[in-house]
Each structure stands twice: as C-alpha cells, then as structure tokens.
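INTERNAL TRANSFER SHEET
From: sequence group
To: structure group
Subject: aldehyde dehydrogenase (NAD(+))

Please process the attached sequence and return the structure record in the designated field. Keep the field labels unchanged so the import script can parse them.
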Amino acid sequence: MTRQIASVIGGKNEPTGSPYTSTNPARPSEVVAAVPLADAATFARACRSAADAQKEWSRVPAPVRGRVIASVGRLVEANAEALARLVTEEIGKPYAEALGEVREIVDTCDFFLGEGRRLYGQTVPSEMPDKNLFTFRVPVGVAAVITAGNFPVAVPSWYLVPALLCGNAVVWKPAEYAAASAHALYRLFAAAGLPDGVLNVVFADGAATYEGLDLALSESTVQKVGFTGSSAVGRSVGELCGRHLQSPCLELGGKNPMVVMPDADLDLAVEGALFSGFGTAGQRCTSLGTVIVHRDVHDAFVRAYVQAVQAAKIGDPNGDVLYGPLLDRKFAERYEEYLTWIEPHHRVLPGPTGRMEGEGLFYHPVIVDGVRPDDRLFLEETFGPIVGVATFDTLDEAIELANRPGYGLSSSIYTTDPKAAFRFREGVSAGMVSVNNSTSGAEAHLPFGGNGKSGNGSRQSGVWVLDQFTRWQAMNWDYSGRLQKAQMDVADITPDLAFRL
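Return from structure group:
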C-alpha cells in the first residue's frame, strides 16, 4: 500500500503541494510513497516556526538535550530492521548496507549524548587584576539542512543530532526520492520528545528550496545552512549564503583516488577497490573514482580486479549482492551520459556497459583502463558503477595525479612502506586519508569533510562538528570597581635586557 506522507511544520502536517511519488528503483512501477512538495513560501514559514521554537529549546539544559539524543539512539536501534528495510525498498541500497547505515545513526547518538555535558567553555586569565574572562558555546539559532538521498538516514543524522544537541532548531529538506525514509526518521526523532517546531521536515524540489532559503535568509530566520549534494549545487548554496554573510557547511562530491604502490598487498587492494568503487552502485560521495596503479603491478591488479567484479552479484537489494539499482531515474539518465565519456583509447572491462535487462534501474559495472589525466573520466565525478584506472611511475607523480581533479574528499593508498604512507598523507589534498583501506567507510567520531570541489573546509562528525552549530561568545567581568582599559592599563615590569653573564 502506498504511504501517504507530508511535510511537518510546528508538529502539524502540511498536506498541500505539488504531487510527487517516490518509487522503488528495483521495481520502478512500484510506488513507495506519495508526498506533496511544498513551495518556497512554505519553506520560509517552516523557518519562522523553527525560530519561534528555538528560543525555548535553547533554554533546556544541554545535559537534558543530551538525554533526548540518547532516546533517539535507542528508538532507532529498536526500529533498525524496519528502517533499513524501508531504505532498501526506496533507494535500492542492499539490505546489509542499509542496516549499517542505520547503525551509523545509533553510533552518532551514542557519541553525542555525552557532549551535552561537555559543551565546555573556558575561564581565561586576564592581563589586569580583579577581572575574569570567559568563553561560552552558544547555539547558532535555526539550521536549514538539505541532504541527498544516497544515505537518506545516516547523513541527515550527522546534521540533526549535533544541531539539536547544541540547542538549535532545524528545518530539514530531504531528497524527495527518499521521502519515506526521511519521514520515518523524522517520526523517530519526534518520538524522543522534541517539542513541536524544534525539528521540521519540508519536502520540496530544488528550485522551491533555493527560493525558500533565500527568503528565510532575508528574513534572518536561518543562521546556518548545511548542504550535502553535488559540487555544482553546493556552489550555488555557498554563493547564496555568502550574500547573507553566512558560512555554510558544505559536504559535496568527490573524485576519490586510490594509489596502489608496487609493494601493496594486491588482494587487499582489489577488495578495497571493489567495495569503494561499486558499493552502493558507486553512488557515494566517497566512492572510488580512479585507481592509480604503479606500472610494475598494473597488469596484475587489473586482472585481479576484473575477476573480482565478474564474480560479484548485482541485483535484488534484498539479497546478498554487491550492489542493487541506481537511486532514481534521474541518476540513471545522468550515468548513461557518463558512459559517453569513454574514448577510443580506453580499454573497457569486464564486458558490457549500460542498463541490464529487466525492469529495475540496474547497470553493469564498468572498469575503464587507460584513463589519462586530461580525460573527463579522470577529472569529473561519475556518480555510478564506473571506475577508472591510470598508471604512475613515482610516488610524486601519483600524488600529483591524485590531486589533479581538484576535489579533496577521500583518498587511499595501499603500501607496506610507512614512509610512502606519510609522504602521501602530506601531499594529498583530501580531507580524509586511508592507508590499506578503501576510500569509503567513515566512523562517527572522526571529522568528515573535504576541500576544493568537495567542500569549503567545514567538517562533520565528532567534536569538530560542534563548531558548525555553535558560536563562541566571549565575556569579561571586571569587579575592580574602576574602568580598566585593555592594552593601556596593564602593569609593566621592566626587564634589564642588557644583562649578560
């Protein structure tokens, strides 16, 4: 039976809007949810509602807010299988991966529930007597969070959990093609006892969201924007925020390199390249873009990689498969365009390209050997099951190739030489580096984020994300009973600088 869902603003459903249906990409004729898409005015109204609710929420003691986050984690854990099944149904992610995604929400909650007791400021010594200096973390206000659908519940939790813990209210705009998964996550958060209006979910298309965000920023009802999505859209969001003197949290795409050194464990490297290149059908921001293989082991690596891909199962995401369908029809159409970037000098492995037979949005895995530094396949993100292979002769050349596309999210090197590993870490521009591990697989307590085309240097996860959802406030308290002027009324102790032994 089709789920009927709607945006929720101030605790109330918003049943009007343009009709939209979310479908099962494994069986596109199967409708998962019907949802009305809101307009720009509705998005702006949600931000006003959040601004009203945030005042009271910020007065709730931070340790109590931490207990609410703990309740979210327990609720998600209790509903893990049902939520994972819904994710698999709606976006085609294999069930084992979907269950891991749900587990990531629990891990995030487990980490942040204690941060409610650790939103520390500092007592700072003053340069003058009878005066104390303090710093405090204060919530930013309202966070507008816009997320993609490839991780429809885990990635939103990276924003929602710390934002709410820090005393902010949130207006969350999920991907409409993952509306049912997002609505289920919203309900779990609401069941934890959040007051109405503290968390709002608005389903809208990109144009209405952008216009609504512009309205909200103009009305000063949004103080922080979080965006996960493509680099092109992230650039537009960044430009909009810049006009309103705001610094958004941008987590964008990647062209993530994996360097395979001549001393690498090739079996381990192949295993990592298989998972990061084709897991989630290559639809992760951390998916492997190009394997940069030393010339001496190139042929052996490619041979083993092709064998691994040929042995992998692709199909029904409820089964034991490497990957299922692409997320949505629009991603399938875009992926078919990427396939046109294959050039005559490339060697395409292991076999056919394009869509598989049948109803679902299933596509053959593609390895493109012989990719050159000026090829589009080397320089641009390809969101789908396609991996390029290039060669190198020296580590310096490999680092230069790894940085050439201008992204900077994730990277990987396979080597048994610690010197090579640390030289790679120093030289690569990526925000995340793996040694003898794949480009995918973030943990909930490490900073997540990229540089260059992959983001604006902001970080999610761990204590580092607190700087996205709090502002530092400084306070000085002078109890001397007189005006003491900084840098002017400071005691001067004169040294004898001419002294010599």
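Handover comment: The domain at 36-252+455-475 is CATH 3.40.605.10 (Aldehyde Dehydrogenase; Chain A, domain 1). The chain has two domains: 36-252+455-475, 256-435.
Transfer complete.
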